[in-house]
Design brief:
heterodimer, A: 115 residues, mainly beta, 7-stranded mixed β-sheet, 4-stranded antiparallel β-sheet, 0% helix, B: 110 residues, 6-stranded mixed β-sheet, 5-stranded antiparallel β-sheet, 11 strands, 59% strand
């Protein structure tokens, strides 16, 4: 069973630039969620994708956007990067969109540094 | 708004010294209470899901319990390899998100 994989593992960008992070979900999982984890904090929900549609969103501005592809892989795009966007970005997949029924399985994240 | 608070922030134990981590939650219509383990530089690793008050689950030296307001992660006779940050998260209402606490950083020493 292949787990959740994310790329790249590390990334350094300059304020104002745009970034795309990628995620392959665990086999058999059709739902992908993205979380942002600042240093010393718990992960915060950005959004979830199910059947290629956004299926819930946290308190993040529109410059955070995403895509899900027919093979259930996903991308997170962040425009106009700000210094506060520096964090570990985690992708998680699950069998169903409802997290009460199916636990999330996380990848090891992409560490984004904005200078 | 859902809230999850974990205590203590950090805990240092000697090998074999049992203890408990606390997770207090406020959520409308709990759908699940989750425990994860996170090692440095890694993503959270799923441990347990609890669905209703009174439920208990065990895995090796870990046991998770749930009440209507709190969850506890009991660690019995811990080993150095149990050192990690333990995260608690709730899922509730009609949303699809997990609300995480800030975690308890556990260090087990020889």
């Amino acid at each position: 069973e292949t787990g959740v994989t994310q790329s790249p593992t590390h990334l350094i960008k300059t304020r104002g630039q745009q970034v795309t992070l990628r995620c392959s979900s665990q086999s058999g999982h059709n739902t992908v969620s993205w979380y942002q984890q600042a240093l010393g904090q718990g992960p915060q929900f950005i959004f979830q994708y199910y059947r290629e549609e956004e299926n819930g969103r946290g308190n993040f501005p529109p410059r955070f956007s995403g895509l899900q592809f027919p093979n259930y892989s996903s991308e997170l795009n962040v425009n106009a990067l700000e210094l506060d966007d520096s964090a570990l970005y985690l992708c998680a997949s699950s069998e169903h969109p409802g997290t009460g029924n199916s636990p999330l399985h996380f990848g090891n994240g992409t560490r984004l540094t904005v200078t | 708004e859902d809230q999850v608070t974990q205590s203590p922030e950090a805990l240092r134990l000697q090998e074999g010294e049992s203890s408990s981590l606390n997770c207090s939650y406020t959520v409308s219509g709990l759908r699940g209470l989750f425990w994860y383990r996170q090692d440095p530089g890694k993503g959270p690793e799923f441990l347990f899901t609890l669905y209703s008050a009174g439920e208990e689950k065990e895995k090796e030296r870990l046991k998770a319990t749930l009440t209507k307001k709190e969850s506890f992660l009991h660690i019995t006779a811990p080993k150095p390899e149990d050192s990690a940050t333990y995260l608690c998260a709730s899922s509730g209402g009609g949303g699809n998100k997990l609300t995480f606490g800030t975690g308890t950083q556990l260090k087990v020493e020889l």
